[in-house]
Known about the structure:
By secondary structure, the protein is α/β, with parallel strands linked by helices. Helices cover 48% and strands 14% of the residues.
Amino acid sequence: MYGLILTKKEMNTFKILTAVMVLTLTNSMMSQSKSNLKKETERTASLIHYRKINVNGQNIFYREAGPKEAPTILLLHGYPTSSHMFRNLIPILSGKYHVIAPDLPGFGYSDAPDRKYFDYTFDNMAKTIQSFIDALNLKRFAIYVFDYGAPTGYRLALANPEKITGIISQNGNAYVEGLSSGWNPIQKYWEHDTKENRDALRATFVTFEGTKFQYLEGVSDPSLIAPESYTFDQFFLDRTDSKEKQLDLLRDYKSNVALYPKFQEYFRTYKPKFLAVWGNKDPFFLPAGAEAYKKDLPDARVKFYDTGHFALETHVDEIGKEILEFLNTLPN
């Protein structure tokens, strides 16, 4: 049997080819490993965790997603919904940001304490969420406020100006210019706290028809509104005594209007970076309310969308993109 005899030149060529093959294989394995790591990171970021934490004797339900070491954004919902309204937005934001979305007391899966033991006021809502952010040890975060989330979030901003990195308001009002005629029967109740005025709101505002109206009014294509959205909200509204709790909050909403000057002073004093993303056919909060922010925050970005109150139901991709661009400009 004859052995293979290579010349020196051939031996060098063989060594070079072998080295190239090893390097190519190594690079391929590293590339595959990086690809797998990226996919795993993306998968982990897209996972939404459903948690509860006890604060001041109440169990507060919240959704959490994204890397905990990333900048945090706190999503605050409004009436008559819950953190469920953010179900489509959270995956858009969580690839790069740590997202936390609680259910306010009396909403969604958070506890709904008896009215004998808990006053349903916006001061108490803010106090509970203050305890929530303290329990989670949130040091710095941006806030996304919608509807009731605005007076709740702005109270938090007044109490924790050093924590707020930026504000996104989606149909979250802080100016009288933003209140539409849809508030007339509610303002009548503020002025005259009578059984008759309260019953009038009970007959309209907290009914299934009233909830569905909030989702569909101003929407050009109603087929984009998932029926489980308003059905889910009404399920919680129909719980024992829930409507009375919500009517208590409607009565107390006048305290938010009284605080508008304080909120505006906060804007002027601390000049937070601000983005308004607004459904321009909202039956309750007018586009003028979005434009009004520019009086105190001249650099505010204001974007309108051809839709109603629940703008995320129809324009989540566009709004999500705008929010990502905005968040990218904020300090950590």
